Amino acid sequence: MDEKTGTLYLCATPIGNLEDMTFRAINILKQVDLIGAEDTRHTIKLLNHFEIKTPLISYHEHNKAERGPELIDKLLSGQNVAIVSDAGMPGISDPGSDLVNLALEAGIKVTPVPGANAALAGLVCSGLDTRLFTFVGFLPKTTKKRRELISKLADNPYTLIFYESPHRLKTTLAELAAGLGDRQAAAARELTKKFEEFVRGSLMSLQQHFAENQPRGEFTLVVAGAGEEKVLEMAAEQDQLSPLEEVLNSIARGQNKKDAIRTVALKRGIPKREVYQAIIKYENTNQ
After folding, report:
1. What is the CB neighbour count within 10 angstroms for residue 242?
2. How distant is the alpha carbon of residue 126 from its chain centre?
3. Distance of CA 233 to CAs 226, 248, 252, Å?
4. pTM of the model
5. Tell me: the pLDDT tens digits for 28-62?
6. What angle do CA 31, 34, 38 make, to 5 degrees?
7. Phi, psi of 61 (to 5 degrees)
8. Phi first, then psi: what are they for 260, rounded to 5°?
9. pLDDT by residue (tens digit) across 96-116?
10. DSSP-assigned beta bridge partners for residue 81
């Protein structure tokens, strides 16, 4: 990496309480040459509060195609750039991840400045299993795609974490109950703010609560997974597969071939070459 190349910092910002801000994040935002913000009107209030005078530029979903390359050019010229979202860690459910990919492709150093995160804050106070979890974030906007995703998540054995807006919360709770069954869940709203609240119970009881109490504020929904029984069932199904079938299943789920071969070989305790040769034979036969 060229030593003259700048660094891209992913800076966490408060998810509610301004005291969520870390000393390091404040110092980084003061020291960088430029700050890219999801909403400059929102971020300028934060910068003013902490007396940060660094120039501010917008970087969001609707201008990322043009603004991303501009920021990369600045980084390549030696400038340091920080990216912030409206709340929490950039790169989670926002276009920050696209800029990270551009930076890595250009050989630019990317470093996190961690801090508050609504998903983890909601999870650890939910009372549900925190050992293994799946972050989903916002569900798709269209009914068809939303229900398709919920259907795929029905067999997921791990705790599920969603983000939702107040005006969509009731609909989402109903769709989750219909697609997943009446599981234990927690709805966290206004995290770290004055009116922070956790509503815990089943998906059905949460529906009843918010039918009687109008949802206000942004929500983190935490829902129990399908359970340990499902984990054992899935493991048993995997054990019945041949190494070739297991690799093909992993590839179908999005894992690249090289990683899938290595994972299956390690899991089965067999030489990687043996799995690789089975894949090559399959590919040659099915060309």
Report:
1. 12
2. 18
3. 11, 19, 20
4. 0.75
5. 999 999 999 999 999 999 999 999 999 999 999 89
6. 120
7. -55, -35
8. -65, -45
9. 899 999 999 999 999 999 999
10. 8, 34
